[in-house]
Amino acid sequence: MEVFNNLNGLFKFSILNGFPEVLNFVTTKQNPYGFGDNFNIGYSGGSDNETLENRMSLASALGLQPENFVIQTQIHKDNYKIVTEENAGNGFLTKETAVKDTDILLTNRKNLCLITRSADCTPVLLYCPDVKAVAAIHSGREGTFLGVAAKAAKLLKENFGADFSKMIACIGPAIGKECYEVGYDCAEKFFKNPRFSDNTISKKGEKYFLDLKTMIFNDLTDLGLRHENIEKSEFCTKCEDKKFFSARRGENQRFCAGIMLK
Ligand SMILES: [Zn+2]
Questions:
Q1: pTM of structure
Q2: CATH 3.60.140.10 fits 2-175+226-261, yes or no
Q3: Which tens digits make up the pLDDT trace of 216-242?
């Protein structure tokens, strides 16, 4: 990841630099210009006015309008929505207008910026240069267990004819493998599923830790995505307390990742 052009408060994925037809970004606690420390894009952790003002600032900094955005209310499952112009602006002005109860948004339409919100859960962006389609995915612990990112990749193939070997995947800032401690019951659920290899579940003393980003990476490469076409952010949202919101630090605010075909 690298700083987004001249906007110090935003990051973008370096792997998409060769594709000027795609806009992508990840927000931080700072506003796009690099100021402040509470740039909350979520629907919680602040007043409706504050969070709307932040979404307006984001749109303005990116040169976009409210109707360019499509935001979902996320429920830690693998429901999806194929987004069209009918969804333009969903979730931007109010939560009530968001795409309901999905964790995957995908589209092959231009000028619709798909948003996924996070605070420790993993934001994942997919781009298919062969068929010009994109997806934004919310992959927390439950979503990762369900393989929500791989499901999105399959949906891009089924609906738009995308080739896995050409697909670009961006695995965003999320709670890291050193910090994501879970209880035995949770670890056992992952242990019992052969999809999750030993190197994504670790035990230190009596504590168990999950490596969600590597689980997502492995699911995508198992499907046929190429290692060199996947960028995995090294940022741990719990450690990087100046940059990202973290639910494990008790924060209710959200940062977001977005992707749009220009
Ligand atoms: Zn950490």
A1: 0.98
A2: yes
A3: 999 999 999 999 999 999 999 999 999
